[in-house]
Amino acid sequence: MSNWNESLHAAVQERFGDKLRRVDTPGVDELMLEVAPEDLLDVCRALRDEEPFQFEQLLDVCGVDYLAYGRTEWKTDEASATGFSRGVDRNPQHELGSPEHSDQMEKRFAVMYQLLSVSRNHRLGLRCWCPPEDPPVIPSLFPIWNSANWFEREAFDLFGILFEGHPDLRRILTDYGFVGHPFRKDFPLIGNVEVRFDPEKKRVIYQPVTIEPRTTVPKVIREDHQYVEGFKESSRDA
Questions:
Q1: Could you state, in order of their start, the residue ranges of all structural domains in the chain?
Q2: Residues 6 or more apart whose Cβ sits within 8 Å of residue 152
């Protein structure tokens, strides 16, 4: 990590002590820190206003769902973990919603923040874990950086994270009446409803999804005579 990031980390440790914890980010030349929800507002206000830091801009806010983090959905003994063949043998013990995942992770939802200091030309990443509640709730940074407004609405829409103190927390990307939060790991890939135009009612209507979920294993087509019906029959006669 660069010398500037190391000096920034030293200044952070001196100012905040245990309120900020460093997160390892291999291969990324950016300082990433972790802050508790109860300290989020005070820490961010100090990072914005105090002389050693001066992070005037909040560049981005995004939600993260760590459900089943580090677990593979596919498990086979002979196939690789990266090829298409991993979908041939599906292990139900690794599926989301299975008994193995009946106990939700204590740390499931987190919010990531990207800060920029224009005057000092440096960046800082923050991660804040949401308390294990349903729905997850975390303080809004709108009182500190106005740019948090639409970012937090997006995280609410896609992940269902509530931002306490937000002035107008409502969906921003999905349609009116949308059910669920599409970026959650346990959200069905086919969705819950679909829309179509009804020629009789002369308007767009909602209806239950008509497609079925399936494992998308690519079909392999080989230029081989055994896959051509005519050649297959003639080879059997021979």
A1: 3-67+104-183
A2: 61, 140, 141, 142, 163, 166, 169
Q: Which helix (H) or strand (E) holds 230?
A: helix 229-237
Is residue 88 predicted with pLDDT exceeding 50? no
Three-state secondary structure call for residue 229? helix
pLDDT of 79 > 60? The answer is no
Residue with tokens 């005070």: 42
Q: How confident is the model at residue 218 (pLDDT cuts 50, 70, 90)?
A: low
Continuous segment of H or E residues that includes residue 138:
strand 137-139
> What is the torsion angle, in degrees rounded to the nearest 10, for the CA atoms of residue 174, residue 179, residue 181 and residue 185?
-130
Check residue 220 and give its pLDDT. 54
Comparing CA positions, the residue from 185, 187, 182 lying closest to residue 172 is 182
Are 114 and 145 contacting, i.e. CB atoms less than 8 angstroms apart? no
Residue 177, judged by CB atoms within 10 A of its CB (0-12, 13-18, 19+), counts as exposed
Which of 150, 130, 140 has the alpha carbon at shortest distance from 65? 130
| Residue, of 69 and 48, whose pLDDT is higher | 48
Question: What does the DSSP 8-state code read for residue 99?
Answer: G
pLDDT tens-digit readout, 176-195: 778 899 999 888 878 888 88
Q: How far apart are CA 92 and CA 73, in angstroms?
A: 8
pLDDT of residue 151: 97
* CATH superfamily for domain 3-67+104-183: NADH:ubiquinone oxidoreductase Nqo5 subunit (3.30.460.80)
